[in-house]
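User: Fold this; tokens only.

Assistant: Input:
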Amino acid sequence: PTPLQVETRTLAMLHGLLRQLHAACARLAAGARSFPSSVQETAGHVRHGVEGVQASLSHARSFHDLSGLVLAQSRERVTRAQLSIDELLEYVGQHAPLPWLVGPFAPALVEYPEDVPVEMAKWEGCVTVG
């Protein structure tokens, strides 16, 4: 492939990744509605930061369209978003009950007391971990 083809593919991948990241952040912000306002605010900051990166880079048609300033600002926004996501994960890890995190999709991770019978019929067809 020519350098122009590599550049075009790289930018197309960048735009695709930014769309996926934006969609994931929108889902994160929507999912945070059941958490305290500080957590919702953090999720909103993540979404806003990703939207800023997407807006800054979405119009680039070549690497020459991306100034050093735009790249530095984008890197800073992504770093702040990553730190905020780390805060969210720490909060969820400390405050969310285990079944909420695990869900019904990984029954092997949920421990049951030995003297309580478990209805295995409801787990039929589930893929277990382990």
